[in-house]
Amino acid sequence: MSPRPPLTALYAFATVAQCGSLRKAAHELCVTPGAVSRQIQALESYLGFRLFERGAHQMELTPKGVELQARVGDKLASVAAEVSLLRRGGHKAVVRVDAGVTFAMHWLLPRLASFSEAQADLDVQLGTSGGPITLSTRVDLHIRRDPADLGDLAYQPFLEEWSVLVGSPRLLPGAPFSLPEIVKEIPRIGARSRPTLWSQWGAHHQIQSSFLEPTLEFDNTVLAIQAALEGLGVVVVPEIFVATMLQRRLLSLVDPQRVLTGHYSYAVRSRQENTAVLTFLEWLRGQAS
């Protein structure tokens, strides 16, 4: 009887193929890079051919390596998911999501109730942070507007960000005024966390950015929106952050035109995409469409 394939080495191979480097794979597997390297060497010895071309910083799959990944990658992920389900027994599967504070507060959180109703056996643990992701945290899925914040992780855009100019109804003039007159006469609120929103809006309307410098500036969009609610000025802000306030007429559109100011992307951190993460991603994309 031929010897059985080394399953530990196969799992190490699949992780390196996904991560692209020994160091990242070792971090995912909670072992040393040397231990991962020995597993790869053992698998190559068993198979009789090379699986990777080793570069200075990257591990590139050979044609045989690509073939092996296609044959076993999904199967290993499926086995891992099934074992995880057995291990949990009657406990809920958990999806750990990390997103920006404002995005989580105004877009993701209001929608999570519908996910919980449809997927009672899945539990979403939502954490918030800003800027570059931290790989030391236990997270399955990161959501960011700036792809650079996702580091070396593969990412997928899923939601366009459209921004609008809004202000308190009691602040806006009743008589018709041109946009240049409005933004000149009424204080302009800015957010230091999103310094380009005014210039992006101005470029769309062919208004020079030098005329659009904020006259009131706050650290983030949460405070900038609150300032607009208090009647302190007008603000360019992502529409998804103020949709409910517009519906309730707490804020009004100064200009009906929306300006594309970015995209939101997700990046999966799980070692293998498990069933719970895939289910959440399908729901997330559906909410964005």
UniProtKB/TrEMBL annotation:
GO terms classed as biological process: DNA-templated transcription
Keyword set includes Plastid: no
Record key words, sorted: DNA-binding, Transcription, Transcription regulation
Single GO MF descriptor: sequence-specific DNA binding
Pfam families: HTH_1 (PF00126), LysR_substrate (PF03466)
Record carries keyword Nucleotidyltransferase: no
Residue ranges of domain HTH lysR-type in the record: 5-62
Family: Belongs to the LysR transcriptional regulatory family.
Identification of the protein by name: LysR family transcriptional regulator
The species this protein was found in: Pseudomonas zanjanensis
